[in-house]
């Protein structure tokens, strides 16, 4: 499990530089690639309407999200190595400074785009509990084996399984979580101070909050980019079917008045809505293509 | 650009044309559907079918009774003993359990005590998705708040012990009434018969439930412990702090040689059916013995109809008893119900005169009784009272009653599987007539059918205007500070959806607040109510602040009527989805909720938009809105007071306690009231 640190670093930096270059290409050569007209690629996050948002979004949001994921992954690796150590398998080197990096990444990413904000829940759980792998039962079994040697003379066998092992990997540690939250608030304050300085002449921070809910990206950019005809009907259908699933669960498991057929029916209803959604999306894209083609033909003519 | 190039509309398919036709005449359709729904609800007693035994294995009444005078006299002796012991001893509450245990042990059954503490009603919002946690350990209970159930078990000689039948006789161990003593005697005689029959294939459990803290608590506690085994030493008697119980255990251990009273919880397999027997105290002078059946539901789950059919069949045809089902007595005198009954009777007679085969009319009296029973059935399903329990015997112990109970147990004994054949979803209109789910769902569907129609028509109206205003905004300078308008026409409902979602969330929070408020120490009812009201109002203020600012921007790009139409459309769709889901969970809640919500949803209109037109219709509509809100809000608030008072302030748990389903309905109703309230009276352009 040991990876020499020197070999790891150049590999990481080369990939990160490649990622930055790729994003620069996307930013500065849009016309040659003609990406903005493709509805599959041109999402609100990568829409090229405004330069400033281009730079901030494509660079920072994606990049720091990647940093965050990497930091979480490294934390996972460290903890994995630690639990392997408990199993007596190997030794791993220490790694510190990951929690502040994770906090920074999360703050920047969620400040620019709404999506990474939900990552906080699994991050908190990961920081608190440690990772799932390897499963806890291996640890318990190994510790029981240890205890078995020690307590061979103990006649009360039913207590053996109940004795807690010396190391408790299943407890929720608050310290890394508190550390993460404090670092996140530090970075958030820093970003807010920067924002305050930049929007001072537009009415101050409060104005920014009122209009953007604290995000730099406007609500407008969060709205979908395709014109689907039955969007409202589909939305209601999806909401209804998703809420139907726990109802059927309750009916089947806890009441006994339902059976698996109810689940099948829910799945079929869901599939019907999916079909309508796909058909509508394809129609919208075809209409879009047709419109561009007619515009080009009228421009040429 | 877009309007001039619109291609000629192709002719739609028939289904779409029908849909468009319905949407354009949405007002007519909604009026027709609503009245049809209410009418169908009133027609339900006429549409009721006769009950029938669905499970062939039950074969009620096909076996000869094995009861003899010996059991009858034993029962009377037992009743006398209980009555006398209750009179003599200072009521510590352990005399009767001891007596019952002694008799059960004499008969050869296994006996054990079940000590329980009446739990406060543990409502948790997530109980809908999982069963309540059985491992809740109650601490700091005083010795006065306990009860002792006596449990006697007969193991079937030919059975495999996988299923059991439960007989429950509640009695107040501190003060036994004559009726309770009679019910104990009845159960004792049946128990003594069952110890020596050869046909028993299921175990029989007799639970003499100590109802000093309410009728619900002992059975609920016993069922909870029955279905939630705990391992590892919790059954061992702890150092009993309460002196009486330890005295009970010790004395029993000394008295009985060879058969010890078990001090751990005894079980007997899954419960196939349960009967609760209560003998009424009132000495009403009746010429015939009557049997009242209480088919009650918990959270919308009714007992299997076959069980009720068996009891009814045996009572009427076997023993000649008069069977009654619980009904709303007050409805029997209502005049309008009489009018309806007579109208339906005359229509039925007319139809019969036209064609003798069209026999669907019933007499006015039957109709009135059927409606009263139906209303009571709906109400019980709504209030989710108690547990599923069945016959109750009125009168003195007669051999007919003993034979009835024996016959019912014998029929259930024949079953190979649990009750699964007959209906679980039904409404009783009398003891031998029922309305099944396929019929009453139609009434409900008719009632809620206007909702999607109105939502679709409002949505299409809101989107009908050409997007010239939208285009204008696009061409304006992009550096203008962010306006929260949506560029595409098909996504304009997003802001309305967000508003509705936030208001619903507020409604949910407000409904769940009582649970958390009651966790506060030392909360009296008035303080908790004040805290709840103030927190709700605070939430409302926060809501208005959050939602108030974006509406200024949206109203700049689209007129206020469009915004209101979209908002109402989204709200009505959410109401429709919610009502449909609720009907699956608990029909009664959904039906009564629909009767309240559908008119409100259809008629709601902001007062500001209404006051411009001074027609009679506009004024009437405005008045209706105001009345509905003013009447509805007190209803909502009183129901919430009841709900919150039921949560932690009624420890005896006596009577009906609203649980999960009612609270879900309530969240719903609160959310709708607020969304309508806010935007009727408070909506104002900045």
List keywords for this structure.
heterodimer, A: 301 residues, mainly alpha, 11 helices, 0% strand, B: 686 residues, alpha/beta, 5-stranded mixed β-sheet, 53% helix, endoplasmic reticulum (chain A), membrane (chain A), GPI transamidase subunit PIG-U (chain A), transmembrane helix (chain A)
Please trace the helix and strand order of chain A, writing H or E for each element. HHHHHHHHHHH
For the largest interface, the chains and their residue counts are: A-B, 33 and 34 residues
Strand residue percentage of chain B: 5-15%
Strand content of chain A: under 5%
DSSP E strands of chain A, number: 0
For the largest beta-sheet of chain B, the strand count, sense and barrel status come to: 5 strands, mixed
Oligomer: heterodimer
Rg of chain A (C-alpha, Å) = 27 Å
Give the averaged pLDDT of chain A, no decimals: 68
Largest sheet of chain A: none
Low-pLDDT stretches of chain A are: 1-7, 88-95, 147-169
Pathway (chain A): Glycolipid biosynthesis; glycosylphosphatidylinositol-anchor biosynthesis
Subcellular location (chain A): Endoplasmic reticulum membrane
InterPro entries (chain A): PIG-U (IPR009600)
Organism (chain A): Escallonia rubra
